[in-house]
Amino acid sequence: MNRTARTLALAVAGLTLLAGCWTSTDEEEPSAIPATNASASTTSAADGETSAAADGQTDGDAFEYDGVTVTGAEGAEPVITLAEDFAPATELGVVDITEGSGEAVAEGAMLTVHYVGVGQESRAVFDSSWQRGEPATFPLDGVILGWQQGMLGMKPGGRRLLVIPGSMAYGENGSPPVIAPDETLVFVVDLVSQDPA
Asked: Tens digit of pLDDT for each residue in 116-143?
């Protein structure tokens, strides 16, 4: 695949992911599940119950948490590596790799972020704002449930790891051909800025 086609494919995947409710007029490509229809039985990160920042470990330039290793300098695209035995998640995992400063994200905020996402089944990057060369801006209530809950409480300048079970992402339909049905998604998100609701 040439560079232009790859860039276009990544841009389309990014819009699909962030919108959480992308639909297509092409009957061969099913719609992704709208974020507001996803179901889950976890509490929000703002409550502190899904946050596991204390459980993450930094080893030199690598950050490790529950089978996920994140490498890469601040201000550059992170690299996500999943352990061979990394299994599908059953609940939302939220870990601050770097804590930002300022006002924390609340429901309804407009966010500008850089992010990279890896699928648990494919072990490959399916989307990266870094590769498109610019951060993405979106309303928090317009994305998948794992982002809606997982971004709460984050502060600008921070870097956060999200491990999102399929039920809080694209559910049993997935988002073919990029995301498999019920696939766990792993993101590293850098919060560039936010505009509170």
From this structure: 999 999 999 999 999 999 999 999 999 9
Whole-number Å distance between alpha carbons of 114 and 74: 11
Q: Which is more confidently placed, 195 or 48?
A: 195
On average, the pLDDT of the chain sits at 78
Question: How many whole angstroms separate alpha carbon 174 and alpha carbon 17?
Answer: 11
**Domain locations in the chain as residue ranges:** 3-195
Beta strands in 49-184 (DSSP E): 57-59, 62-65, 68-71, 79-82, 93-98, 110-119, 125-128, 136-139, 159-164
Backbone φ and ψ for 53, nearest 5 degrees, come out as -55, -35
Residues 95-105: what's their mean pLDDT?
96
pTM of the model: 0.75
- Which CATH architecture fits 3-195? Roll (3.10)
- For the beta carbon of residue 192, count every other beta carbon within 10 angstroms: 16
Question: Who's near 189: CB < 8 A, 6+ residues apart?
Answer: 113, 114, 115, 151, 154, 159, 160, 161, 162
Q: What are phi and psi of 190, to 5 degrees?
A: -105, 120
If you ran DSSP here, which 8-state letter would residue 140 be given? G
Give the count of alpha carbons within 13 A of 138, CB side only: 22
Measured CA to CA, the distance from residue 62 to residue 57 in angstroms comes to 8
